[in-house]
Amino acid sequence: MTFKCEIIEREAQHTLSVRTTSAVQNLPEVLGKNYEAIMQYLGQLNKQMSGPPFVAYYNMDMQNLEIEIGIPVSNKLSDRDEIKANEIPSGKFASCFYIGPYNEISPAYETLTKFIEEKGYEATGIAYEMYLNDPCEVPPEQVQTQILFPIKKK
């Protein structure tokens, strides 16, 4: 399988997000619950999402993933309970597009990691997955995910 990898510049993106921990096997339930809470809050504010939902992975401990579940918004909004106004920072990112089931995404990460090294960069720790379509509306082999790593020159 081949993956389209590239270096891109991104502007800062305001978000509403929830930071939590989860085992990988519980992710569907944890993500669903938190996306629903964020979307309800957005509805109460009469605001819309301004980009694809995402998860930021702060570690890769599959039994204790430290994650931030978020939705991009067009401007900074107020916190409410566990839902926090945040942002994805601006800067250089390595990007890889993956199409297929979430549980088979590892080769895309491996390809992107090699791409980053070959281009003379290093990842700065956080991995973002942007969910470009709804897994409830398409079969698993058509799910589209963009993986992003903030990067800096070695």
In short:
With 154 residues, the chain is of the alpha+beta class. It is 20% helix and 40% strand. It contains two helices and nine strands.
Explained architecture:
With 154 residues, the protein is α+β, with helices and mostly antiparallel strands. The two termini are 28 Å apart. It has a single domain (4-153), classed as Multidrug-efflux Transporter 1 Regulator Bmrr, Chain A. Strands 1, 2, 3, 4, 5, 6, 7, 8 and 9 form a nine-stranded antiparallel sheet that branches. The chain has helices spanning 27-44, 106-118; strands at 4-10, 13-22, 54-57, 65-72, 84-88, 91-99, 121-123, 127-131, 144-153.
What's the structural blueprint in terms of helices and strands?
Elements: E1 4-10, E2 13-22, H1 27-44, E3 54-57, E4 65-72, E5 84-88, E6 91-99, H2 106-118, E7 121-123, E8 127-131, E9 144-153
